[in-house]
Amino acid sequence: MTSYVTANGLKFGYLEQGTGPLVLLVHGFPDTAHTWDAVMPAIAAAGFRAVAPFTRGYHPTEIPADGKYDTDTLGADLVALIDALGEKTAVVVGHDWGASATYAAASIAPEKIRLAITLAIPHPASIIPTPRLAWIMRHFITLKGKRGAAKIRANDYALVDELFRRWSPAWKDVPAGETAKVKAAFGEPGVVEAALGYYQQLTIRMPRSLKKKISVPVVAFAGEHDNISPRAFEKARHWFTSSYEVVQVPGGHFMHREHPEHFVGELVRVLRDKATG
Predict the structure, then answer these.
(1) Contact criterion met (CB below 8 Å) for 241 and 104
(2) DSSP count for the chain of H helices, then E strands
């Protein structure tokens, strides 16, 4: 069942399981809060309150009237959600765009973040452009373009399925219906345009929140078969002044969906080791 809360001036929809210290689970693109469906029960069973918001613009969360989707704003959303959910601090777990937002939140309000856990994205300031990286990230150009919305909607959102295959290349048996909830969200008025806003507001300038080193403990999950090599996460180490652990797990960009049992086991281990007591 979806619950609602107002944070940072927006009405957010979210899923929730369990009681205990707050663990905020933040999805990326192309995805929704349901990406954590296999993760939330295990977190709840481990004694935590698992909350997965639909990020700004993703149905049923409100589409922002001001059209702001920049990284600093995404980080501020997470900080505001912690307060709106009645907590003083939280563990924040972010995948893809959610990872960027998690890094931003940890920079903006380190006193609010007990532990930052990211999936599939090293600290953005550590990413060095290369021709190979430009090729594998070519969807950024597609999604920033004027015809981006039409391309997403074409052929029953075929690009969504293509991105799953491209970014988790070893995932040969993607379950039927894996992307159904994403497509349903994109079928709601304005959601595709909102999702594209995240890409369209990217610039060559690093967001203010990502220009300084992060002082909270960070654990970064890296997929063995992701297009971003686990080595990239090691190279990001100098952006963190507290503890920093890289956990290499099977799978690609969608590691938590591709190998949920392995991922969940490692995530619960990290939570018990670093977020209790």
Answers:
(1) no
(2) 11, 8
Whether 267 contacts 117, CB under 8 Å: yes
The one-letter code for the residue type at 229 is S
| pLDDT > 90? residue 63 | yes
The residue among 46, 40, 48, 54 whose CA lies nearest residue 4 is 54
Q: What is the pLDDT of residues 188-213, one digit of tens each?
A: 999 999 999 999 999 888 999 999 99
Token pair of 39, please? 């993760």
What's the pLDDT score for residue 277? Answer: 64
Evaluate the omega torsion of the peptide bond into residue 60 and state whether it is cis, within 30 degrees of 0: yes
* Distance of alpha carbon 147 from alpha carbon 249, whole angstroms: 36
Q: Is the pLDDT of residue 60 over 90?
A: yes
Q: Count the residues in the chain.
A: 277
**Span 163-178, mean pLDDT?**
93
Q: Six-digit token pair at 129?
A: 């452009």
CATH of 3-274, one of 3.40.50.1820, 3.40.50.150, 3.40.50.620, 3.30.70.560: 3.40.50.1820
What separation, in Å, do the N-terminal and C-terminal C-alpha atoms of the chain show?
Answer: 30
Alpha-carbon distances, residue 263 vs 158, 251, 268 (angstroms):
27, 9, 9
Q: What is the mean pLDDT of the chain?
A: 96
Measured at the alpha carbon of residue 8, what is the angle toward residues 202 and 82, in degrees to the nearest 5? 105
Q: Which residue has the tokens 């935590």?
A: 48
